[in-house]
Design a protein that fits this description.
The protein has 342 residues and is of the alpha/beta class. The protein has twelve helices and 13 strands.
Amino acid sequence: MGNLKIGSGHPVAIQTMCTSKTEDIEAVVVEIKTVEGKGCDLIRLAIPNFDAVKAIPLIKERTALPIVADIHFDPRLAIAALDYGADKIRINPGNFFDRDYLEKIILLAKQKNAALRIGVNAGSLEKDLWEKYGAPTSEALAESALRWVKFVENFDFGNFVVSIKSERVPVMVEAYKQFTAAGNDVPLHLGVTHAGLLIPGTVKNAIGIGTLLMQGIGDTIRASLTDSIEKEVEVCKSILKSLGMYEKEPDIIACPTCGRIEIDLEKMVREVETATKHLKKPVRIAVMGCVVNGVGEAKESDFAIAGGKQAGALYYKGELYKANVPEADLVPELLKLIEEKT
């Protein structure tokens, strides 16, 4: 998709989807700028009509991110979006009743060197699979995905990714596992569909996406949230950082607040987070608030504060760097150390 590649050998790509109406070009561009250069690798736009299609090239002129056109029921919009320069088309083939149109989309994507995302979820599950399984079970979703992969590959087209989504985390995880167990090495888009507000949505996505990534399954991710696209990208980054799969910025760890803490820990963590946003290296920074866990975590980090009673110590690469630093100087001294050593 443009300059972006996903699949075996490439980092897991982070994506999100604009909430603005695509035909409102200014609003879309403003929204994209909130995630461009901040961890997002590709952006999806809703394409429900031809006015939205016509906005694609005008938006592409103002962002370096590859554009994914999100199509659902009208295959003519997919064809038009390809003609207007979309880098990738998202379709749920189960929503298209005219297979001839689906063939045209595949062949046009092949001609234009564009990518496709073949989506499967409960809302697009084929009627015969509903009747066979009685519900959008993991078996039904996996069988649907296998069916559409075979259909697409019949046209000697390989530039596509598959998503198999459910709002039920166990169903989603099992469907992907069954799909890969069938011997497919097609790149996979992971996510828990309509996961909800920030906290429950983050938990669902972290469990679903994280479980699969730990098993080597997944090539691009979106944390679908009822929240801003910035939050979606932040959650995706946090999932990847927790698995050691994100190397574009620091990983900041901090102990939970408790009665043992005798420094203003939360304030310090936020100050460090803000001051290190410019770093594009996967350094581990620990900001710890008490002597119980502070020293141990400090020895496991590249840079660290180990707090004490209104004071603390600084660590570098697991070794004590400076002891008895007053509380007011801990963050400035840590940031100075980071600046010198990175």
